[in-house]
Structure formats: structure tokens, C-alpha cells
Design goal:
The chain is an alpha/beta fold and 348 residues long. It contains ten helices and eight strands. The chain binds uridine-5'-diphosphate and magnesium ion.
């Protein structure tokens, strides 16, 4: 993969606008109006420290993912006194992955930090992440929940199963437990931008691009307000999305299962033949027949479903629709503190 920036330290190497030194903090927000001001205050504190200690220019990109409350208005009213603020409003709720992509596309500085807007990703950790990037030259600094003991056993089991399936036979394993709170160096962010697929699974892609990666364990904080937008169905959906957009493991699993069933049937047939030829045993046909038909029928239906998931994915990639539409884009610079960009309505 050709990337234009070679320095891990984030300094520009004749690279395009994206590779300017600095840090863009991308924050997807969906119905976060109640906690946004508090979140922003904490972010500003962190950004001030970064600017003072490391002379790192920062901006924040809020992506309003079609919120139904007044998140957009609140974000637009935030004062840009320490760092530039971009507020992008999507034309409807496209989902977090699409919001992250919109943020990545609009980030104007070199490195990109993804962070949730609900306060669960502690801004106090940002300095440590930046340290791994600037001092040690890491490209992908991802965070993972230090503990999962407080989660229900069923959920933990689901997570385990998901990762063993998605990583099955994969050359580059997706780290278990990794969240969306991650810092990408300019060249890693650039690599991510070059990926052409529409269905994004950022956790997987950020790991797939390679470069120097490091894991940082952290304790997620409580939400500032409200509750998570993920329910059981949403999580299952995301898992299927992640699996099918990222790995062909389910298809391989189907082939293996088919092989296993065929082999079992073959040996079962042999044993029946053996018994009736050598021992004259009369084999009762009806129950085993029903069981056999039902097993094969069920497995085939499931596997057709799996195939269908992949065909659906091919369809949506072929349609090549934009991943999101921007309804409004507002930029506030820390210097002039005026709205510099008029509202735009085009897809970007
Ligand atoms: N989010 C979003 N679009 C959505 C759902 C969520 O942009 O459709 C944002 C949300 O505002 C938050 C982040 O994604 O900043 C994580 O969402 P949430 O806290 O609901 O997920 P969890 O932390 O439980 O994984
Ligand atoms: Mg959250």
C-alpha cells in the first residue's frame, strides 16, 4: 500500500493537506446534547495541555449523526477558544461507523483520534496516547477495556465467540476487546482513507492496515448521561456486519460443516452396510431418515443464509452509494472565532 507520509513522528513529508502536523479529534455524537458541553470542557483542558507541552495543534470534529435532540445546535454554539471546532451534521442517522468515516474524511490535521462523545473515553488518557505516537513512533494506538468481569457471562461468551470466528485463519488478528477509542498517526490515517470499501468496520480495518500498533488498557468511565444506543439486536447486527465485511470465516465454516456431515453420512452408511451384510441386522430406516433429512435441510438453510449475507454485501458495494450525506458543515477557528464555512448541502 502506498502511503505518502513516511515519518512516524507525524511531520509532513511533502504530503497532502491531511498530513499536516497536528491532531484531529473525531467525535461521533448521537443524541448527546445533555452532556456535550461538559465533554467539550474536558476535551479543551486536554487540548490546552497538548498545545502547551508538545506544541501540538488540535482541532475537534463533531459529527452529529442525525440526532433527534439539539446536539447540533449545542455543538455549533461551543466556543472555539482553545482549538478549532468543526461540526458536521449528517442528513440522517447513518450509524457510528459512517459517522467515524465522515469525521476521518473531514479531519484537516495529520493524526486522527477517534473518541466517543458520551464521556466513556476519558480525555485524560489522550496525553498518554499522544505520547506513544510522538515519543515512541507508534502508528495505531488502540485502547481496550481492562476488565470485562462486570459484564454478563453471556455477553462475554458472545464476544469470545465473535473474535475467534473473525480471527479464524486471519493473518492479521483483530485484537479482542479493542474499542473505537484509538489514535492513528498521519500515515495510518492516510492508509485508512485509501480503503475503498463502503461497509466499514473500523476496529478491524485499523488493525488490518498494520504499521506499528500498541494496546493501551483503560477503564471506561460511566456515560455522562443517558444510556447506550446499543441493544442486543444492534450488537448482533454489528457482529454480522463485522464478520461478513471482514472475513470469509463463516463461508469456510460452512464448507467444513458440509464436509463433516458428508463424512459422517458416509461412515454411517458403511456401518449399516456392514451390519446388514455380516450380521443380518435389519436397520430401522424411518427415524434415521427423518433425522438425516432434517439435519441436512437445516444446515443447508443456515448456510444459504450465510451466503445471502455475503451476496447482500456485494450488492451494497456494487451500488457504491455514498456512505453518508452532509447536511451542514460548520467550522470555527480558534483565532477568529467566526463561522467561516457557509452551510453546505452537497454530499461530500
Ligand atoms: N453514536 C453515533 N451514531 C449512532 C450511535 C452512537 O454516532 O447511531 C455515537 C454516540 O453518540 C457515542 C458513540 O457513538 O458518542 C458510542 O455510542 P454508545 O455510547 O451508544 O455505545 P457504547 O459506548 O455503548 O459502545
Ligand atoms: Mg458509550
Amino acid at each position: 500500500m502506498a502511503t505518502k507520509v513516511t515519518s512516524p513522528s507525524g511531520s509532513a513529508d511533502g504530503a497532502p493537506a491531511h498530513a499536516q502536523a497536528g491532531l484531529s479529534i473525531v467525535v461521533p455524537v448521537f443524541n448527546e446534547a445533555a452532556g456535550l458541553v461538559r465533554f467539550h470542557d474536558r476535551l479543551v483542558e486536554g487540548a490546552r495541555a497538548l498545545q502547551k507541552n508538545r506544541e501540538l495543534k488540535c482541532e475537534v470534529v463533531y459529527v452529529d449523526d442525525g440526532s433527534r435532540d439539539d446536539t447540533f445546535a449545542v455543538a455549533k454554539a461551543l466556543p472555539a477558544d482553545a482549538l478549532d471546532i468543526q461540526v458536521i451534521s449528517l442528513s440522517r442517522n447513518f450509524g457510528k461507523e459512517a459517522a467515524l468515516m465522515a469525521g476521518l474524511d473531514h479531519a484537516r490535521l495529520g493524526a486522527v483520534l477517534f473518541m466517543d462523545g458520551d464521556g466513556q473515553h476519558p480525555p485524560s488518557l489522550v496525553d498518554r496516547l499522544v505520547g506513544h505516537w510522538l515519543d515512541e513512533g507508534y502508528d495505531v494506538i488502540y485502547t481496550a477495556k481492562a476488565h470485562r468481569e462486570n459484564e454478563p457471562a453471556l455477553r462475554r461468551f458472545g464476544v469470545k465467540a465473535f473474535y475467534s470466528l473473525i480471527n479464524w485463519g486471519a493473518r492479521q488478528k483483530i485484537p479482542e476487546d479493542a474499542g473505537d477509542f484509538r489514535l492513528l498517526s498521519p500515515r495510518a490515517a492516510d492508509a485508512l482513507r485509501q480503503l475503498p470499501e463502503r461497509s466499514r468496520f473500523f476496529k478491524g480495518l485499523a488493525s488490518w492496515i498494520g504499521f506499528r500498533q500498541i494496546r493501551v488498557d483503560y477503564e471506561p468511565a460511566e456515560r455522562l448521561h443517558g444510556s447506550t444506543s446499543w441493544n442486543f439486536r444492534g450488537l448482533i447486527g454489528l457482529s454480522i456486519e463485522g464478520l461478513t465485511s471482514f472475513s470469509v470465516a463463516p463461508l469456510r465454516f460452512a464448507s467444513l460443516l458440509g464436509l463433516l456431515l458428508a463424512l459422517t453420512a458416509f461412515f454411517f452408511g458403511l456401518s449399516i452396510l456392514f451390519e446388514s451384510v455380516f450380521y443380518g441386522v435389519k436397520v430401522a430406516g424411518y427415524p434415521s431418515l427423518v433425522v438425516g433429512v432434517m439435519v441436512i435441510g437445516g444446515v443447508q438453510l443456515v448456510m444459504i443464509g450465510v451466503l445471502g449475507e455475503y451476496i447482500g454485501k456485494i450488492l451494497s458495494e456494487i451500488k457504491a452509494r455514498p456512505v453518508y450525506f452532509v447536511a451542514e458543515h460548520n467550522i470555527k477557528s480558534a483565532q477568529d472565532q467566526t463561522d467561516s464555512a457557509p452551510a453546505r448541502t452537497a454530499a461530500e
